[in-house]
Design goal:
It is built from 20 helices and 15 strands. By secondary structure, it is of the alpha/beta class. Strand 1, helix 1 and strand 2 form a beta-alpha-beta unit. Helix 2 runs antiparallel to helix 3 and helix 16 crosses helix 19. Bound molecules: 1,4-dihydronicotinamide adenine dinucleotide.
Amino acid sequence: MFTTETRIGVCGAGAMGAGIAQVASRAGHKVIVLDRDDDALTSARAAVEKGAGALLKRGKINEEEAQAIAGRMQWSLHVADMAQCGLVIEAIVENMDVKTSLFKALEQVTGDNTVLATNTSSLSVTSLASGLERPAHFLGLHFFNPAPIMKLVEVISGAETDAGIASGALKLMQDWGKVAVAARDVPGFIVNRVARPYYGEGWRAFEDGAADAATIDFLYRDLAGFRMGPLELGDLIGHDINTAAAKSIFEAYEGRTRFTPSLAQRKLVAAGHLGRKSGRGVYDYSEGGERSAPLVSKPATNSNIGKIFLGAKAPAMKTVLENAGFAYEVQQDVPAGFAKLENTIVGFTDGRSSGALARELNNPVALIDWMRDPASTSALAFSASCDEARQSGMQLAAVCGMNTIELKDRPGLVVFRTLCQLANCAADAIGDQVTDADSVDRAMMNGVNYPFGPMAWAREFGFNAVVHALDAIADETNDMMYRPSEVLRNLTRSAL
Ligand code: NAI
């Protein structure tokens, strides 16, 4: 359907349009970029030249290719110039009426076989197509910023999109070197919907006083390998943009799903602390402003640590102890999944808080937050049911040669609760037939750089254990938003 001979039109010469045009030209297409503002075209031309220069510098392309990227591009202020395009990708202002009138004008000048696409992040593809003469030739191609670098493109079919056109566009995006993922037209598509709990849970941990902001952000990086914690990421995106996105998704789903926006983040916006762009957000970016360090401490080494007894079915604790080279004994009266150090039951959180488990077992309990790999994690983050358990948590960290972070006790702690809720949200998207499990994972890894996909994580951790954890968090918080998705519950019965 599309070949390198297909002429590509890009409407809007802003950050996204310039980036998409560069990607299309690099793939060998002739590209024409339209804007209503001449200055925008001039800046976009400079941006594309700079982008090609950067590729040349990094050895990704040679001099000839760098020149060809610029040479294949044309710039225009007139819609009529898009007449010869086989595909037009729109990346203008995020406004339904302005976009619709541009698409109507494009339909008048382009041929019957031309495919029109929108790069919208938040508008409905189906609604944008509704006033058009050829809605079957219309779809969403959602690139991520910066388009030449971010691999993901969500290929969104509206209610009327022709299936052959959607699969042709998917193939074209792959030819452009992108990770193309098909999605149904729902608010937030895949990434902006499934990513909500990352921010939501970060803020909720902050509101609960689980730890201070710098420590919360550190946990996501150190324990799980995310590039940025949710609070610092909000500072980068801008809390005004981030809260608006949270609010619009929450309203679009009318509270049905798990997208409750954070009141603390809203308060930050009301105070004008929008993030890096305003000089202050969660952190202070003003000149001389200092960013507080995470509250990580080094436990005193205690040479009198007694024996550690391991219960049955405790592979994660076993890995931690073996990684530290600490000898343990298996003992059947230690609860399954946990270990015992002195008088304290220690182990990874399974969704319950230390306090809840201590009451259940009538024993001091220290629980550790999830970690991807004890060998590459620097701190053991734990909560304790009492002071005695706290001492044991410190001792365990000393045994493991790790620093400690003491968290306020809460069900599922911080990172584990977030991962469970991300999997829950990903499963909801699968249940709503937005996409499949593999595509959700590829979308999150390539659209927002997650270190692993939420569904792959849940599968590896065990769907059963994730469902139990979510139920435990819902029981203790008394918050319905944690109840497991029907899809997750079904997956406990049949492997995906
Ligand atoms: P931008 O504000 O940088 O650029 C928009 C450009 O469109 C401007 O140069 C403006 O002059 C031009 N324009 C506006 N109305 C026009 C019209 N009627 N005809 C021709 N040109 C017109 O915006 P940005 O950030 O590039 O976003 C563009 C679109 O991409 C929006 O729909 C946005 O939701 C979507 N998007 C943005 C992402 C981002 O991170 N910025 C990520 C993914 C999608």
